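Appendix B, record 7
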Amino acid sequence: MKIREIQLKNFKRFSDTTITDIPIAARLVMLVGPNGSGKSSLIDAVQTWHRQHWAQSGNWDQTYHLKQMPGVTGNWDNSVKVVFHDPQPTNEDDRRKAVYVRSAYRNDPEFQYDNLSRVEPAVREFRINRMIDNDQAVGNNYRRLVSLAFEHLFERADPKLTIGEFREQSIGEIRDAMQRLFPDLVLNSLGNPLYSGTFRFDKGDSKAFLYKNLSGGEKAAFDLLLDILIKRKEFDDTAFFIDEPEAHMSPGLQGALIQELFNVIPDNSQLWIATHSVGMMRRSREFAQGNSGSVVFLDFDGQNFDIPVILRPNEPDRPFWKRAMQIALDDLAGYVTPEQVMLCEGNQRDGGKDFDAECYNEIFKTEFPEVVFMGVGNVDDVQNDPRGVRRLISALAPGVRIAGVIDRDDRTNEEITALQARQIKVLSRRTIESYLLDDFVLSKICEKFGQSELAYQLLSAKSDALRSSIAAGGPQDDLKRPSGDIYNAAKRLFPNQKLGSDARAFMKGICAPLIRPGTPIYAELSNDIFAR
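Structure tokens (predicted):
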């Protein structure tokens, strides 16, 4: 079932509101707006209409559902109307499965069962009546999964089915979905349903630990995925509503979860999400770009629902996304947008950040948290900006200061003066490696590993490596070329330490964190880049 229109009169937040023109192609409907703007109330309205009108199991609460305003009267029959694209179903079970709702109060911290019992069809299960009710589903879904598994085993399974195949059919789908979200978390089994029955997981060295030991984010994601994966066979023609699915999750996990939910809902269903999550909105934008017409956005921000309102899907343009991000980030927005961007040499390779930028960001993260270093390519890209990076940053983040920083290499003082006049800072040493492999830093490495006496050997190895480089035609002040030999010398002196897989990993992970405020090498590098 796919919803086309929702009409609300004197229901909670809404006096006279019509949400309309939801296209039949829409599989994901994003309800975006700040707290208190009416997103949850809309889901409450659809839940109330469905329970009263088609499921005959509702409970109208005048003090909760009715708009609290002098002189206002009403009931469920004239407060909410839901119109579908599809013909109205006539079968009772088809009506029951037309709408499925999860509230924001999903909390099922632990459960264990010691017996088996038959579970009624999911379309006849009602856990909550209002969106403020606690929505516990994991324990019931465990019982449902066990019940369905044994029903399949004894009534329909191939007689040659092995135990391993039986377990794979029972938990394989939810196990794989969870591993895509948490690569190190593996759903182990259903445990023993007759004795302390619960989901069991593996993680690292921990084996078969109980569901109750999952983190809050792991439980939240598991709850929503398990619920839809189990019930989508019965709810195969349904408008699913989930209020704030991002609870307890980081932005990256939020985006990954909505990807999984979007993929598992049946083809003839809709997924309505009420959220102000950065991760979910960002991923939904990617869906909208890659699946034309399948994603729509309803913007609740700034709407006055005390007067008649007609709300239609928004065009997700720049003003919309700016408002959405401001809602999601709130006071953090100022911290996310840097005050200054320093363009430096280097390219992103294999999806990872470039070397120079990562080193600078690590070194200056304490004293200059408002500054972000970003690699843009070769030295010409920093100096002349042929790809228009500066213009793009200025357009996306007006007011951000932009400058550049490059290695000195063989530049003359006159060249450096000219570059600095164009807001391009030039290191006083040849390359960034000259700072990372400074004698002070190498001595600090020996001190860090509790073997200060080895500093002389490491510095001697550095001198030998530099001499060999010079003999081969390298510049006298170039530590980039011999950096591999210096790294190998450190590996020989500290065979039991993890120094990184190559010289760059060594300099980025071991050397850069040792260049800290208060040290001479930090003062020199900081002066090169930030001196007015």
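Remarks on this record: The chain has two domains: 3-133+213-331, 335-530. The first strand starts at residue 3 and ends at 11.
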